[in-house]
Write a structure and sequence with these properties.
Na+/H+ antiporter like fold, 6 strands, 568 residues, single chain
Length: 568
């Protein structure tokens, strides 16, 4: 027992050191975990003699990972992500798997191996992409929303594929085995649906009274489902996913997710360590050229498929390019799928090493591509014009020369637009949300559906000719682009932008902003104004309350929501 404890302690220290180096190079920690596995494996330090312990930890890690993925896959999500995410997600999976299969066959792989590899290539990492988009502050941009949408569609497809693959775990590959396994699984899901809607909410309310109890309930629910589905002939991965999906409709799903993340982050390290330690370099050297070919296909071919599909759907070349870069890597699902194939005897450890190598190359490459996408796009823009329709969704007809331009309608923009209306000033609204554009259109207000970070769009609407430009979008880079576009040609325009940090506000002022809105400070300023004005007069506060309640109800009608605050 002591020796295992010492080994695990040494392993964690090595993982920490390698991960520290990877963070310096701004790479996802997944790469650090796999490289750590190679270091502690038999090729170098051979510290992983406690293989069984790490293998068990790995199973827990996969279960928690897929449980959390399930928590974010609400049955309502397909409706929410919209047509573009659905079409692009399914289309990319179909084309990538077909082309990947043909590449595999042409490189001499068997049909079974080619099918596994082709399917593995289709999945992109939702976790990595969400982290990178969040770091860039692009989650709320048009391409960010579309990307997260089709990544969630991919996750739904992954569930179905994992269920099909896991149905072979009984040792037979006949259609009868698959049919009866699905029947058992469908029967269990059907039995659980009434319990999920009628019994589970009452249990959750009881458990939620204690944070520790809710934590314990979440673990028991996730692992219990995993064990039950394993008993029915499925894999633990499928059970964990479905357990998460059942809880996704719960009002406590975000709370449960935040509590599970530390467990997931700790145990999933073991899965990637195991992958790294099992890499076989003696045979993988002969697969370097195929790995390079597959990696280039993922890094270039996958984005190209998305750009073409989004171009056909009427989106601009910039939106298609930015969204396309988010599928330029393989995901944890890809590695879990291949590992499952090895477990079932369909694949060898050499193929697991091969796909892991592709994962290392594509995750590292795509990370830099996404980080520097704003600098890469101008270099490729003119070559991407062939993928863009003459009339795209993001460039609707607008008024000739708007005196005022409001970029971002939701929340702050809603109040500003009311002021323009009172002053009887015509204003052009620019927003990335199609539902918002439809609402504004019905009111007869000039508007366009576009991304504030699109330099060409800013030129087309002649932003530099406007007398007043107000941007309520939180992206610092977008706001700096807006200021530059205006100040390069017009010093007289009034430019108002938004910032979250004091340093960003100061930089925006230096760049030429006339005023910087800081939402986090506005509330305090307004309340201090009320205190000075009303002092201890309760009746005046009641009037303010009535006015505020009316505004909140109007905002609910408009579909406004406060930005979600995540913990942990």
């Amino acid at each position: 027992m002591i020796s295992i404890f010492v080994q695990l302690s040494q392993i964690i220290l090595i993982v920490l050191g390698v991960s520290f180096l990877l963070r310096i190079f701004k790479q996802p920690l997944i790469i650090g975990y796999i490289l750590s596995g190679i270091i502690i494996g038999p090729i170098f330090l051979n510290l992983i003699s406690a293989n069984e312990t790490i293998s068990i930890f790995s199973e827990f890690g996969i279960a928690f990972l897929l449980f959390i993925v399930g928590l974010h896959l609400s049955p309502k999500v397909i409706k929410e992500v919209g047509k573009v995410s659905l079409v692009t997600g399914i289309g990319q999976v179909l084309f990538t798997s077909l082309i990947g299969y043909l590449i595999g066959i042409s490189l001499g792989f068997s049909s079974t191996i080619s099918i596994y590899i082709a399917i593995a290539l289709t999945f992109s990492s939702t976790i990595i992409i969400m982290k990178l988009l969040s770091d860039k502050d692009d989650l709320e941009k048009l391409y960010g929303k579309i990307s997260i949408g089709f990544l969630l569609v991919q996750d739904f497809i992954a569930i179905i594929i994992l269920m099909i693959i896991s149905s072979f775990s009984g040792g037979s590959d006949g259609l009868n085995t698959i049919f009866f396994t699905f029947l058992r699984g469908a029967g269990l899901v059907a039995l659980m649906i009434p319990a999920t809607y009628y019994v589970l909410p009452k249990l959750e309310t009881f458990f939620a009274k204690s944070q520790e109890f809710l934590f314990l309930f979440s673990i028991a629910w996730g692992l219990g489902f995993s064990a039950l589905f394993f008993y029915l002939g499925f894999s633990i991965e499928v059970g964990a996913l479905i357990a998460g999906i059942f809880l996704s409709i719960s009002p406590y799903n975000h709370e449960i997710s935040s509590k599970m993340k530390p467990l997931r982050d700790f145990f999933i390290i073991s899965f990637f360590l195991l992958l790294g330690s099992q890499m076989i370099f003696s045979s993988i050297t002969s697969l370097l050229i195929p790995a390079a070919i597959f990696s280039l296909f993922i890094l270039i071919g996958n984005p190209l498929i998305v750009i073409i599909l989004m171009g056909l759907l009427g989106y601009s070349k910039r939106t298609g390019f930015m969204a396309g870069l988010t599928v330029a890597q393989i995901s944890e699902f890809s590695l879990i799928l291949i590992a499952l194939g090895v477990k079932l005897g369909h694949l060898t450890n050499e193929i697991l090493s091969f796909v892991t190598l592709i994962g290392l190359i594509t995750i590292a490459g795509s990370t830099y591509m996404i980080m520097y996408s704003d600098k890469i796009y101008p270099l490729l823009s003119k070559y991407l014009a062939i993928f863009e329709k003459k009339r795209v969704k993001e460039k609707m007809s607008i008024i000739k020369k708007p005196d005022s331009i409001l970029i971002g309608y939701n929340r702050i923009g809603y109040s500003l637009l009311k002021s323009f209306s009172k002053l009887k000033k015509e204003c052009l609204v620019v927003d990335f949300n199609p539902e918002t554009i439809n609402i504004i259109n019905k009111k007869g207000i000039p508007c366009i559906y576009a991304d504030a970070g699109d330099s060409e769009m800013l030129e087309e609407i002649k932003i530099h000719d406007a007398k007043l430009v107000i941007s309520t979008v939180p992206s610092f880079e977008d706001n700096m682009l807006i200021i530059k576009k205006i100040r390069d040609k017009n010093e007289k325009s009034i430019v108002v932008v938004t910032a979250r940090q004091i340093d960003d506000a100061l930089e925006a002022y230096d760049a030429g902003a006339d005023y910087v809105i800081m939402p986090h400070f506005l509330g305090g300023d307004y309340v201090s104004h009320l205190v000075e004005k009303y002092e201890y007069n309760k009746k005046l506060y009641e009037k303010e309350k009535t006015k505020h309640l009316k505004e909140l109800k109007d905002r609910i009608f408009e579909g406004h929501e406060h930005p979600e605050i995540t913990r942990g």
